[in-house]
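pinging the channel bc i need a second pair of eyes. not urgent but kinda urgent?? the chain im working w is below, pasted from the shared doc
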Amino acid sequence: MPSVGVFAAIFDKHNRILLVKIKYGSRNWTLPGGHLEANESPIDGVKREVLEETGYNVDVSHLISIYSAPIKNDLVFLFRATINGQENRTKNDEIEEIGFYPREQLPHQLHAWNRKRIDDAYQNLKSNLCIFE
């Protein structure tokens, strides 16, 4: 069974994208998100991950794309989301820093796959998202 990741592309009113810097592994910057928990939907998962990492409550507007890394047996869903509120962010062992960045001033510590996802988000790509109840 592949692992499933869920991430959010969130922009502020100045069209800057929200990024988080992780405290583990590569210590790179990435979009807020993570892996789904058991029996969690991708939309619920991305909302939970964004809240845990940033303190922001979000609404998911659409699916940007799905990415696959077969060598890692990994699927990643990237959603466009908007902030609808904020809670007090508690320090955690996962995230060192958060910030909004303009496209032309992204941090250098970004994996190539994150640059691709950010480019897709700036292009406002939209994939069909079908939800069956």
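so The mean pLDDT is 90. and The beta strands are 3-10, 17-22, 29-30, 33-35, 56-69, 74-86, 95-101. — does that match what u expected or am i reading it wrong
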